[in-house]
Predict the structure of THUMP domain-containing protein.
Amino acid sequence: MIESNQTAPLNLLATCPKGIEGLLHDELIALGATPGKTTVSGVYFTASQAIAYRVCLWSRLANRVILTLVRESMIDTAEQVRDVVARIAWTQHLAPGNTLAVDFHGRSEQIRHTRFGAQTVKDGVVDALQLAGQERPNVDTKTPDLRIYAHLHRMNLTIGLDLSGESLHRRGYRRDVGHAPLKRTWPLHC
């Protein structure tokens, strides 16, 4: 799923609860990453593959870690989203017979529902795979082999691969008891 060169810097995004982006920025530095732009509920950063996995394993503040594949501006229509997604080399990320799921966030004038946005992204993936001669993948929203992250806000589209799977606050804690009243990623020493 990630490039074979384990030392090449990867472009990543760590998402977090709104308001703790500064704390996440500092945590990423402590884990060995190089933070970049901070956004609402997230921090873009670069890191090697090993450090990206370290962030997935040890971050107490990140909800998800996204490997950024493409960031495009001036995207507003479903056709534009589909075209951007179809230009990605999905055969490098999705093997034949694997399943996928799309988590779409955001909206535009023409994309007003996240389900429609997710369907549009999936259609772009299918177009790219079929053009490459690969079979159509199945969708599995519960346990996909590949989870795709898509965010459209103010005509800026980000497409990436979710490296963390489920939200990091669900890392297997309290498997046999009731739900925790707070997310596990919330800092204990505020």
About this structure: The longest helix spans residues 114-131. Residues 1-62 form one domain.
